[in-house]
Amino acid sequence: MSNKAVFLDRDGVINVDHGYVYRKEDFEFVDGIFEVCRHFQKQGYLLIVVTNQSGIARGMYTEADFQRLTEWMLERFREEGIEIAAVYHCPHHPKFGPEETRDCDCRKPKPGMILKAIEEFDIAPCRSIMLGDKSTDEEAGIRAGLGKNIKINDSSDIIKIIFSLPPKD
Ligand SMILES: [Mg+2]
Ligand SMILES: [Zn+2]
């Protein structure tokens, strides 16, 4: 049987969105995010991060900066008993960066990152969930055919979603 996954946006869902965060000093985990992830992990969901990182196209930080922060973030999750299966990021922007990368398929609301994960992890979209803080996250999830697309209005909402979801798929 295919896998099921929770697709997590990063900024505004995993960490407080301070805008173009690329240093661990500025990476503030959202209250409740570890509980939310452990909850889904226990129910057998893969946890996959899908994040727009146009700060790279904008020249605000580098790919290496992003990867360094990601490694640190994944280690923090592991310390909390949480295994993140993969992190997909879009480094592009329609107005910045090399001309040929501006019209990419991965920048949300496009579903490219989610579709890639579905393929690579043999995920059943209809059994899977998008968890984002913007309508572009929701739209990407809908376009990828995910069964449930949740948009939190405030990062303090995140803990509530545990109780708003049916216990089983
Ligand atoms: Mg966000
Ligand atoms: Zn992209």
Automatic annotation (TrEMBL):
<feature type="binding site">
    <location>
        <position position="134"/>
    </location>
    <ligand>
        <name>Mg(2+)</name>
    </ligand>
</feature>
<dbReference type="GO" id="GO:0005737">
    <property type="term" value="C:cytoplasm"/>
</dbReference>
<feature type="binding site">
    <location>
        <begin position="9"/>
        <end position="11"/>
    </location>
    <ligand>
        <name>substrate</name>
    </ligand>
</feature>
<feature type="site" description="Contributes to substrate recognition">
    <location>
        <position position="107"/>
    </location>
</feature>
<keyword id="KW-0378">Hydrolase</keyword>
<dbReference type="GO" id="GO:0046872">
    <property type="term" value="F:metal ion binding"/>
</dbReference>
<feature type="binding site">
    <location>
        <position position="134"/>
    </location>
    <ligand>
        <name>substrate</name>
    </ligand>
</feature>
<feature type="binding site">
    <location>
        <position position="92"/>
    </location>
    <ligand>
        <name>Zn(2+)</name>
    </ligand>
</feature>
<feature type="binding site">
    <location>
        <begin position="51"/>
        <end position="54"/>
    </location>
    <ligand>
        <name>substrate</name>
    </ligand>
</feature>
<keyword id="KW-0862">Zinc</keyword>
<dbReference type="InterPro" id="IPR006543">
    <property type="entry name" value="Histidinol-phos"/>
</dbReference>
<dbReference type="Pfam" id="PF13242">
    <property type="entry name" value="Hydrolase_like"/>
</dbReference>
<comment type="similarity">
    <text>Belongs to the gmhB family.</text>
</comment>
<feature type="binding site">
    <location>
        <position position="9"/>
    </location>
    <ligand>
        <name>Mg(2+)</name>
    </ligand>
</feature>
<keyword id="KW-0460">Magnesium</keyword>
<feature type="binding site">
    <location>
        <position position="90"/>
    </location>
    <ligand>
        <name>Zn(2+)</name>
    </ligand>
</feature>
<protein>
    <recommendedName>
        <fullName>D,D-heptose 1,7-bisphosphate phosphatase</fullName>
        <ecNumber>3.1.3.-</ecNumber>
    </recommendedName>
</protein>
<feature type="binding site">
    <location>
        <position position="106"/>
    </location>
    <ligand>
        <name>Zn(2+)</name>
    </ligand>
</feature>
<feature type="active site" description="Nucleophile">
    <location>
        <position position="9"/>
    </location>
</feature>
<feature type="binding site">
    <location>
        <position position="104"/>
    </location>
    <ligand>
        <name>Zn(2+)</name>
    </ligand>
</feature>
<keyword id="KW-0119">Carbohydrate metabolism</keyword>
<keyword id="KW-0963">Cytoplasm</keyword>
<dbReference type="InterPro" id="IPR004446">
    <property type="entry name" value="Heptose_bisP_phosphatase"/>
</dbReference>
<dbReference type="InterPro" id="IPR036412">
    <property type="entry name" value="HAD-like_sf"/>
</dbReference>
<feature type="binding site">
    <location>
        <position position="11"/>
    </location>
    <ligand>
        <name>Mg(2+)</name>
    </ligand>
</feature>
<keyword id="KW-0479">Metal-binding</keyword>
<dbReference type="GO" id="GO:0016791">
    <property type="term" value="F:phosphatase activity"/>
</dbReference>
<feature type="binding site">
    <location>
        <position position="133"/>
    </location>
    <ligand>
        <name>Mg(2+)</name>
    </ligand>
</feature>
<dbReference type="InterPro" id="IPR023214">
    <property type="entry name" value="HAD_sf"/>
</dbReference>
<feature type="binding site">
    <location>
        <begin position="107"/>
        <end position="108"/>
    </location>
    <ligand>
        <name>substrate</name>
    </ligand>
</feature>
<dbReference type="InterPro" id="IPR006549">
    <property type="entry name" value="HAD-SF_hydro_IIIA"/>
</dbReference>
<feature type="site" description="Stabilizes the phosphoryl group">
    <location>
        <position position="51"/>
    </location>
</feature>
<dbReference type="GO" id="GO:0005975">
    <property type="term" value="P:carbohydrate metabolic process"/>
</dbReference>
<feature type="active site" description="Nucleophile">
    <location>
        <position position="11"/>
    </location>
</feature>
<feature type="site" description="Stabilizes the phosphoryl group">
    <location>
        <position position="108"/>
    </location>
</feature>
<feature type="binding site">
    <location>
        <begin position="17"/>
        <end position="20"/>
    </location>
    <ligand>
        <name>substrate</name>
    </ligand>
</feature>
